[in-house]
Structure formats: C-alpha cells, structure tokens
Specification:
alpha/beta; globular; about 40% helix; about 200 residues; Rossmann fold; about 15% strand
C-alpha cells in the first residue's frame, strides 16, 4: 500500500457507444453516449453528496482528468455542476492503456482473429499485452507516481484499467484480483483515512 494524500476521489468516465457495444477502446479517442452524459451528471450528484459528507472545502477541490475525450467530457459535466467551477488539469499519466490491434473489436472478434494471443492473456493478465498494446505491469509505476503527486481534495476522472491499477496500489490486492475489479460508470470511490470507500 502506498502513502498518498487524502481525501482523494476517483471515478470512471461515462459510457460510450463502444462500451455499449462491448468493443475494446483502449487509447482510441471515443466520445460519451447520451447515456454516458446522464451517468456523468449522476456522478456529479454523487460527488457533491460525498464532498458534503466529508466536509470538504469546495474552494480547495480540483479535477484531474485523463486527456482522452470521454474523460474530458465527463470532467466538463462534473465541473459545470459546481459554482464556481473548480480548476481542471489534464494528466496524460491517467490515460487508458492501449490494447493495440484489439481496439475497436469485440471479444468474439478478437477470439476469431487472434485466438492464441487472447488465450495467452489468461495466463498472466497483469503482464499481458496485445500486439501494439500496453500491459498493466508496464504502466503500474507511472500511475503509482502520478497518484503520489495528487493534491488533497483532488477528483480523478479516468478509465477502467487505470482504476484497476490504482486500486491495486491502494489496497495491496493481488495482481490477479486487480485485473478483474469491476469499475462501473456510475460510482465514486473515496480514499480517506487510508481506506477506500465506494458510493453509488
């Protein structure tokens, strides 16, 4: 478990059309769907309630976003919920991992085209990467360092696999478990008092 500032808040971007169609996105710069925009608005309300519960001084809050469009759009919706709007920073450390030649494909299409590659993923999901992609192990240190640089009262809007890596570092859960953590689009995770809490 790493030593970082608190409180910190984490959320995933809203749904995209590719999410709805179960397509691998990775570093492809997709946009929010209509449902994704609604989810972002709902998360803004969840965040407000959580900040009030934690008695956070909203003037000290800041938003940190992945530079990918779906995260930026979510961040803009969250920011617009507050008056005045909090400062926002784009941090490329928290962009989603690339899945190389799998991007844009469904799981079934990957199985049909790259059967052996997909099969090898089950052996070690933490270190696996598709051709042209990145592994969680490769990005782990960079993301850990990014976490250490976050200021108290930061709200990080990022992606599914990045959140899995973050939760691995915050909770010391096994790498094998970290690869399968469910990160829904509508949830707020709070790191406060050396514990991770989820609110949805």
């Amino acid at each position: 478990m790493i030593d970082i500032a608190d409180p910190l808040y984490f959320m995933r971007h809203g749904q995209t059309d590719w999410n709805a169609r179960a397509r691998y996105q990775g570093s492809t710069d997709t946009s929010l769907s209509e449902l994704g925009e609604l989810e972002a608005r709902h998360n803004a309300k969840l965040l407000t309630a959580r900040l009030q519960s934690d008695q956070v001084d909203l003037s000290q809050m800041q938003l940190v976003s992945s530079p990918l469009k779906r995260a930026q759009q979510t961040t803009d919706i969250i920011s617009g919920h507050f008056d005045p709007m909090p400062p926002t920073t784009l941090n490329p450390i928290f962009r989603e991992l690339s899945v190389g030649r799998w991007e844009g494909l469904t799981s079934m299409e990957v199985k049909q085209r790259f059967y052996e590659e997909r099969k090898s993923r089950k052996l070690d999901r933490w270190r696996f990467k598709p051709q042209g992609g990145e592994s969680m192990a490769e990005r782990s240190v960079e993301i850990e360092n990014g976490l250490r640089e976050l200021q108290p009262n930061s709200v990080l809007i990022t992606h599914c696999v990045v959140l899995r890596i973050i939760f691995h570092h915050l909770t010391d859960i096994a790498e094998q478990v970290a690869t399968s953590v469910v990160t829904p689009h509508v949830s707020i995770w709070c790191w406060n008092g050396a514990k991770l809490h989820r609110q949805d």
